[in-house]
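Worked example 2:
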Amino acid sequence: MRESNLEFIESTPISKAVLRLAIPTVFSTIISIVYNLTDTYFIGLLDDPVQLGAISLAFPVFTFLQAIGNMFGLGAPSYISRCLGAKKYEEVRRTSAVSVYITVAMTFFLTLLVSIFMESILSLIGTSSDTVEPTRKYLRLVVGFAVILILQIILPALLRAEGKAKEAMIGMVIGTILNIILDPIMILVLHMGVSGAAWATIIGNFCAVVFYIFIYLRSNTVLSIHPADFKPSMRIFKEVLKIGLPSTIAQSISSVTLILFNNLAAGYGDQVVSAYGVAIKMITMEFMIVFGYVQGYVPLAGYCYGAGNIKRLLNGLKFTMITGTVICVLFLIPFTLLAPVYMGAFTTNQEIIRIGIQFLHAQAWAVPFMAIQTSVMSTFQATGQAVRAMMINLGRQCLFYIPFLYISNHLWGMSGILHTQMASDLATTTLAVLLGIPFLKKLLRQNK
């Protein structure tokens, strides 16, 4: 392992350390977003609301698959960062190997289950007689090659925990460039529709995974995917799952909330489902970029917490929260002024554009506060505060979202459900502040 990967975490000025980790992570996040938007964009060029709707309807299942990867993809980096701070390098090797192999095993099991219950899932996610067949085609491919998609999540996540944000980013670039090249060929030239979008994603992810495996096998790193380091222990599972499991539950619940939303929205017409499918990608984009930026601070936070350097941790949190809020304020531009341009890039259907703009304008009220929410949640994850992290995670997609969804739909109809995510985010940010203040005061007392 190159000591320089950890030396800058320990001693480099806060702003430089956070930015050095955050910028490649943000770039990786943007690349991941381009990945998702590319499929939607080229399917949108077909000007076929049915196939566009199929991509939207399949999104909850895709999100659920990502949640499985994030069980260890979020839990393991938190523990690894703390172990690096405490100089427990053998534990780092074991944790990384265990995380990769257990995730692969879980993914194969999940692939089998989803394949068996495919028809029930198609009914559950709200497909209509028009959208059921293209949605089925898309899901069969995505689920069949789910192990590739999951490895593309966990392998770079572990690299970022060691400070190898640049290597993690390069893999994302490789996959995205291939996806961008293959999407128009398979969707527009070969006329494969949603199946072409799925194949482009699979091939791009496969090439990224090959690159990551090369890094693990040939690079000078303390991380390991060697079978000899696969030595599970209750300690590893406890430390990883206490952070990763709540995150997985929260992300799985987000799949459920998307299904609930689609079923309610279907009552107002397929165009509402399609509009939300496009608009939610902008909402997800904003959240992912801010979350990606904050993830640059997480290895520093975990390392400093493990090393007992509380002052440096708190300074990192302050810098991240302030600069992250600046990013959030800048996001008001695409959510307000550029909303018509964004929606128009994916469809020419004026009703879909109109409804999508309403979604984005509603969400704009919560955008400036997202860095506060994500910074506090990530601090809890980095320091092993599983319950607090889980409450914030669940707040956004469950504790607040589901009640708000049904109450708003009952009281205000379609206008109500348009504002549900905004109300949920504002409530979750308030919860994060209420949970964060006592914890930060406790850390300050420890620092004295």
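The chain has one domain: 4-447. The mean pLDDT is 82.
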